[in-house]
Amino acid sequence: MLSSNRRKLLDVFRAADGKLVSGQEIADALECSRTAVWKHIEELKKAGFEIEAKRGSGYSIQPSEELFTEEMLYFRAKTEFIGQQVAFYKEVASTQIIAHQLVGEGAVDGTVVIADQQTAGKGRLARPWDSQKGTGIWMSTILRPNIPMQQVPQLTFIASLAVAEAIDNVTGLDAQIKWPNDLYIDKRKVCGVLTEMQAEAERVHAIIIGTGINVNQLEFPEELRDKATSLAILAGKTISRGALYGEIVVQLEKYYQLFLDQGFAPIKLLWEARAIPFQEKIVAKTLQGEIRGTVKGISDEGVLIVRDAVGVEHAIFSADISLG
Amino acid sequence: MLSSNRRKLLDVFRAADGKLVSGQEIADALECSRTAVWKHIEELKKAGFEIEAKRGSGYSIQPSEELFTEEMLYFRAKTEFIGQQVAFYKEVASTQIIAHQLVGEGAVDGTVVIADQQTAGKGRLARPWDSQKGTGIWMSTILRPNIPMQQVPQLTFIASLAVAEAIDNVTGLDAQIKWPNDLYIDKRKVCGVLTEMQAEAERVHAIIIGTGINVNQLEFPEELRDKATSLAILAGKTISRGALYGEIVVQLEKYYQLFLDQGFAPIKLLWEARAIPFQEKIVAKTLQGEIRGTVKGISDEGVLIVRDAVGVEHAIFSADISLG
């Protein structure tokens, strides 16, 4: 975790939004001498920040496209609480496992765990998730809303909505949501969302939203090639993971706040507008068998409503969906 | 965790149930020489086991009443899976926190975390739980049933039923259950059960049942004196925590297996028979206000049904109950 001084220094530059900050402003914020300011700036440079110094007027930081460190991720998060505590790892088994541990240790609302590589990344229903080094955004966000257990699936929709919008804003690509938790572009998967919780029988302690995004992979393992792709392949250029991360936490906080203020209704409308087009024929593979039909929408509990050929509506709690 | 050899050695004595075991039987089980058997027996003695050796016929172990160690707890657990993996700590913040971490690391069904002292024991709704050194049973049991989230509260009833029966069997005291999670004897609390879970929006990964039992305290802090008591105070003698633990895991496995085989219906009947007498007037303090009436029963979701003075039935999901 970042030192208090480092946080204050980054706060000053983050608030300036790329504009010049005078040495005196920094000295005031850190309650230190001008000489100490110079040392702090040198340390930031060593940490990989590109700092422009203008004699007599101050310093400015342009976020480095490449840099993907705890400090840069903190600097990128222009939010009130999501990402204001960030734990970055070069390599972990799974950010979800770390997040579960941090919940036990009392991690605050909005804490983000993020890794450059996962050796045992996991998807929905304990499936493995491919998370190669340096190519994607593998993150887990801890939220502590005061909601009953039954509403927890709604957080999956908030997260997929937020990530879809962040992808659009940063890359210009149009991400669509496939119920319950995947983002697709051009019929290939670019992102999965996994919502887990720790709860008592009566009360939710914490929700952990895992988000895996394929950003800069240029190749996929044989068995994924038809199903998965990356933003870089689709956009034809490298995408800054830092910039995308910064946009994700902003969008996530925006929609989460909307949910806390106004409930699930507005989220549901926005989500449905981004969902893979309704009226299309789908096949839902459930534990009980296959259901074929057209998607009518989602319920307030996040259940998928499918109408079959003879007009019967089915409520689907858990399934794999494919276009039929 | 115990070494494989130590487990095998304890398995042999556990199966013998206090009867003599020949040196050859031990040598066969551990695939070792008779000289090595002698060394193993010496090590068990050092670990605090009371071993009787009969020249020419073998060894026997009588469980020591006092001994409360990982090895003795393993030796006490005459079960198929609950307690067959046991992690014992002299002191932890909370066994629930450790259990959550072990779930992340893939702990198997039936793993027990147990401590001689908790420095930050927790009760329901994040309330602190007093757990002085060496006086109680503070344990967390990890279960991995394949059930939907809605059924998780049922595990609280299984656990309180099992612990009540174990207390009866070991001490002769008559423990009654107060919805949702407390055991009372003579109108004072002796045990609390806390059911937590890790789950996906669609799927339960693990349920962690925390159980705190006041066994050998002779005094309680001022503020608890009217509300809490211990089995030793009630029985007028020291109770073997090891013996009680051994009975708890047996009863817990029995009722959990009954639940897996036959569902919640038989558990519900047994639970209601042990519940603080129905027809008595109670006050339920909920977040929405107070409800006064008589308890009619529990629903399949673990909801308490209370009928008020004018005959209206209330479904209570979360409340503090007192006799009115």
Please count the helical segments of chain A: 9
The appropriate CATH architecture of the largest domain in chain A is 2-Layer Sandwich
Task: Give the strand order, joined by hyphens, for the main sheet of chain A.
Answer: 3-4-5-9-8-7-6
Radius of gyration of chain A: 21 Å
CATH topology of the largest domain in chain A: BirA Bifunctional Protein, domain 2
Identify the CATH homologous superfamily of the largest domain in chain A.
Answer: Bira Bifunctional Protein, Domain 2
The low-confidence runs of chain A, each spanning 5 or more residues with pLDDT under 50, are none
Largest interface: A-B, 29 and 29 residues
Structural class of chain A: alpha+beta
Roughly what percent helix of chain A? 25-40%
Shape category of chain A: elongated
Number of strands of chain A: 14
Give the terminus-to-terminus CA distance of chain A. 48 Å
Q: Give the integer mean of the pLDDT values of chain A.
A: 91
Number of structural units classed as domains of chain A:
3
Give the class-level CATH name of the largest domain in chain A. Alpha Beta
Oligomer: homodimer
Strand and helix order of chain A: HHHEEHEHEEHEEEEHHHEEEEE
InterPro entries (chains A, B): aa-tRNA-synth_II/BPL/LPL, ArsR-like_HTH, Bifunct_BirA, Biotin_CoA_COase_ligase, BPL_C, BPL_LPL_catalytic, HTH_11, WH-like_DNA-bd_sf
Catalytic activity (chains A, B): biotin + L-lysyl-[protein] + ATP = N(6)-biotinyl-L-lysyl-[protein] + AMP + diphosphate + H(+)
Enzyme class (chains A, B): ligase
Pfam families (chains A, B): BPL_C, BPL_LplA_LipB, HTH_11
